[in-house]
Amino acid sequence: MKKIALSSLSLAILGTAGAAHAQSSVTLYGLIDAGITYTSNQGGSHNFQETSGSVNGSRWGLRGSEDLGGGLKAIFTLENGFSITNGKLGQNSLEFGRQAFVGLSSDQYGAVTLGRQYDSVVDYLGPLALTGTGYGGTMAAHPFDNDNLDNSFRINNSVKYQSANFGGLKLGALYGFSNESGGFATNRAYSFGASYNYGPLNFAAGYLQLNNSGTSLNSSGAVTADSTFTAGTQRTYGAGLNYTFGPAVVGLVFTQTHLDNATGIGASASGTSSGLTLTGGSARFTNYEANARYNITPAWSVSGAYTFTDARLDGVSPKYNQVSLQTAYALSKRTDVYLMAVYQHVSDTGNSGITADINGLSRSSTDSQVATTIGLRHRF
């Protein structure tokens, strides 16, 4: 009897709430990615390990909207990242480290949001590269994720504008405040980007600039503990295109990152406990990626990418050659199994101590590294 009464009361409350907020919605969503990874060399030894997020970072989130009338909505997203292997929070133990924002969205004019958000290079150029997508995986990131296409960091204290779709054209811009009185430019960020879709052709471009990211000058600024580089200035820009024909998509992506007063590559990027130390000069990474994916059947896909990275740092000019391959088979609309492999080789490193370093893994003791993962993804 008590159980029936409680259920009736709950239904009554839910019915009242539904009537009062008929134009509102909140969605719980998430993705869990777990796998077993073999690495040929991590610090001098091969390794078998259980991994989380080898293709897509494990996460759960809440997404909501309220219809305000006239095509205007209030929107929000709160998204948490975590490791499925041990349950720990990701993104340096932030509760909603992947995304946290609120704003207004107009069908006619676009959206303005405030919070912790992706920059415009990630929003517009990111979907054209394989890393950071379901077809490439986090391990397929360009060396050290130097262009942030794998979302190594987000922008705090940011206000973002994203336009509506104007006949296939979309535009966006972001500004991340330093939040420091008397130091307006100390650890701030700004970014802008655009994409254009014309039938089977997609084109995108973006630009990102960070000031004093990763330094100790302002720990409450736009990019803090999860920064890829410790540098006075970081400028990243790039462009890409892809073309769809039938079940196949082929694409090209170009990015370049310039660093001034660079003193380190963060541990989160290098996969090591200490990262890499730089001498404080300038550095540059130029990435050329060719990628393709093909749906053999609606349930079975194959994909791959080749990236050549020409770098300049600490008086040497390392050249990275990286190949990534993946095949995935969908057991249902929400669950799939996958097999992926990444090979990286670096040359022309001189006496710098730079070695092969696949994203998210401890670096090799040699100039080559291979990693393979068999895994399971479930979406809800």
TrEMBL record:
| GO BP terms in the entry | monoatomic ion transmembrane transport
Compartments where located: Cell outer membrane
Q: In which broad location class does this protein mainly occur, judging by the first location in its UniProt entry?
A: membrane
Source organism superkingdom: Bacteria
What InterPro entries does UniProt report for this protein, alphabetically? Gram-neg_bact_OMP, Gram_neg_porin_domain, Porin_dom_sf, Porin_Gram-ve, Porin_Neis
> Pfam families in the record, alphabetically?
Porin_4
Q: Name one GO cellular component term.
A: pore complex
What Gene Ontology molecular-function terms does this entry list?
porin activity
Q: Which UniProt keywords apply?
A: Cell outer membrane, Ion transport, Membrane, Porin, Signal, Transmembrane, Transmembrane beta strand, Transport
In this protein, which residues make up the domain named Porin?
12-348
The protein's topology relative to the membrane is: Multi-pass membrane protein
Signal sequence annotation:
1-22
Q: How does it assemble?
A: Homotrimer.
**What name does the UniProt record give this protein?**
Porin
Species: Trinickia violacea
